[in-house]
């Protein structure tokens, strides 16, 4: 990728954390907590699906070894996110999604052979996982106090 495209990808990636951080901060101070927790879960699941989809694109471009295996494995984020959102209580779904981000990060940076991608992916994933942690603490506290 050329430098201008990398800069654009970086800016869009950082912009993509606004819904994570914004909803987590507003939820932590008690603003629209129920609605934002629901929106957070949906956005988190959508982004996990996107991260798995990156591998589809790499397979289509012929840039991953073992393409059939890669296609099967890259379904993990979307299916795990769907399962968490569909079948777990909100508190545990948030914890599960945060954990999935960290698991997928480890796999992702080993498979995507782009230095710029690793440099952006790690800090953004830690911010995203942190927003899941903030939501978890917020909701756990509400359950305990409420």
TrEMBL record:
- Residue ranges of coiled coil: none
Q: Which domain of life is it from?
A: Bacteria
Keywords from UniProt, A to Z, are: Membrane, Transmembrane, Transmembrane helix
Which InterPro entries does this UniProt record tie to the protein? DUF3429
Say if the entry is tagged with keyword Cell division. no
Pfam annotation, one family? DUF3429
Q: Where are the transmembrane segments?
A: 12-32, 39-59, 79-104, 124-141
- Name used for this protein in its record: DUF3429 domain-containing protein
Organism of derivation: Aliidiomarina haloalkalitolerans
